[in-house]
Structures are given as structure tokens and as C-alpha cells.
Amino acid sequence: MTVRQSTGTTHRVLFGVALLALACAALAVRPGDATAAPTIAWSKCYVRIGPFECATVRVPVDYDRPDGETIAIAVTRLPATDPDRPIGSLFLNPGGPGGSGVDFVVGVGDALYTPEVRARFDLVGFDPRGIMRSNGLRCFGTPKQWGLAGTPFAFPTTPAEEAVKADADRYLHHACEQRGTRVVDHMSTANVARDMDVLRRAVGDEKLTFAGFSYGSYLGVTTRTCSPSACARSWSTASSTRSHGRPAGATRR
Predict the structure, then answer these.
(1) Which of 35, 101, 202, 217 has most Cβ atoms within 10 angstroms of its Cβ?
(2) What pLDDT digit, counting tens, does each position of 176-228 carry?
(3) pLDDT of the residue at 225
(4) Side-chain half-sphere of 66: how many Cα atoms within 13 Å?
């Protein structure tokens, strides 16, 4: 439910967004990563739902080889309602890992924050590499082939369940080795963070503003704990709850 607020509270919310949202300079890049900002061509999409815009941005499969093979990252934005007073883009990750940021923005983006916050931010979601529209990883030809990859429990709690889980993981690993593309070896949280920084540059933001839900908050933690060659600044991370229209899971430098 969207929280309605007074003008004074709204100003505090917007100020909190600016301070508590993840504001980072670009991820410090490895040698060869510093390339020109990619271009992004927005087009209308999901027009029956709202004024959404969609695009794809190509990123390196392997950031150690920035001039090598690339993959397309699908991104969607819900433009700010008051473009005359913009703050910038608010990137969102719904958690998972493996949740679709495109579906998240399209499905609930308009209801996440108050009209006052929505007026100042473009809400931006993307499908992480290997997920759905972003070169989605396919390890099986048909749903029936999933077979032993699934288990009747979420987490093993007994030695017998641990054995079942280990067999399921081996089955899935073998299938992905046989059918999966090269992206399977590069679907790390660190690479998703690097992809998001490429998207930040593509939309023209000097700094990245980010809100992560559940696992999405770990995206900020990853940036703080990665090596100096991958991170320019260390970030602190808040909880992934939502309160009074402030971006949930917001982190800052």
C-alpha cells in the first residue's frame, strides 16, 4: 500500500532518498573496462499497462575480456511523472537471485513509492544476465527434462535430504554444461553489479541510485566487499524493508 504523506514529510522522504539511496561513482574498472558510455535506444512497451520504455544494452560476457563476446541486458523504465524536476534513475532489483527486474518494474513499479517520489525518479529494472530476456540460460530442452533437478523440499535438513540435494545439483550442473551457453560461467553477483554500472552510464547518470529487495540488497554488499580493482568506494547496506515511500534496501556510499 502506498503511504500518503504531508508536504513536510515528503521533503524528508525525498531528502532521505537522496542520502540513503546507493550513490556511488562508477565501479572502479579493471584494465580495459573504461570504455565510452554505451548508447541506449528506448522504445515504448507494455503500453496497455503504463508509459513504460524498453531497451537492451550490450555488456561483456567476461569483464576480463571487455572487447570479447557480449550479451544483451534487457532493461525497462517507468519515467518520472515530473520530468522538469528530475533527480535521476532509481535502479531496482527484486531479489531472488534470479528475479526479473523488468517484470518487477512493470508489475509493481507504479505502486512502490508515493507520487512525490515517483515524480522525481525514473524507475529502472533489468533482467540480470542469464535471466529471462537477458540471454536467458537454458539447461533443458523441455520442462520434463528437469527431472531430478527439483527436490520436494526447499532446504535439506537431514543427511538423506542432503544426498538428494547433492544428486539434484549434479544433475543440473551436467545439464547446464551440456546445453548452457558461456554465460553460465559468468553469472556472478559481482558481474551483475558491473552490468548495472554499465546501465547507469547508459542512462546518463553520474552516480548510481539503487534499491534492492531481499537478495537485491546483497548486490550492494557485493560491491563493498569486492576487490579494490572492482570497486571505487565501499558501501553500507540497509535492511530490505520498505518504509514511508523510501526505496527499500537502499544503500549509500
Answers:
(1) 101
(2) 888 877 788 888 898 998 998 899 899 998 888 888 888 888 886 776 565 43
(3) 60
(4) 12
Based on the domain organization, do 40 and 150 belong to the same domain?
no
Q: How many Cβ atoms from other residues are within 10 Å of residue 163's Cβ?
A: 11
Note whether 35 and 107 are same-domain residues.
Answer: yes
| Mean pLDDT (10-residue bins), the chain, 253 residues | 41 37 41 63 95 95 90 95 90 90 94 91 94 87 81 90 93 86 85 90 87 84 53 37 37 37
- The structure's pTM equals 0.72
Is residue 3 a part of any domain in this protein?
A: no
Closest CA to 210 of 236, 238, 247: 247
| Alpha-carbon Rg for the chain in angstroms | 19
Burial 195-225 (b: 16+ CB within 10 A, else e): bbbbbbbbbebebbbbbbbebbbbbbbbbee
**Burial class of residue 239, CB neighbours in 10 A (0-12, 13-18, 19+):** exposed
Same structural domain, 124 and 35:
yes
What cell does 179 get?
Answer: 546445453
- How many separate domains does the chain show? 2
- Distance separating alpha carbons of residues 251 and 209, to the nearest angstrom: 8
Question: So what's the pLDDT on residue 176?
Answer: 86
76 and 65 Cβ atoms separated by less than 8 Å = no
The per-residue b/e assignment along 111-123, b for 16 or more CB within 10 angstroms, e otherwise, is ebbbebbbbbbbb
Residue with cell 549509500: 252
Residue 241's pLDDT is what? 36
Range of the domain at 45: 9-137+182-252
CA 22 to CA 209: how far, in whole Å? 5
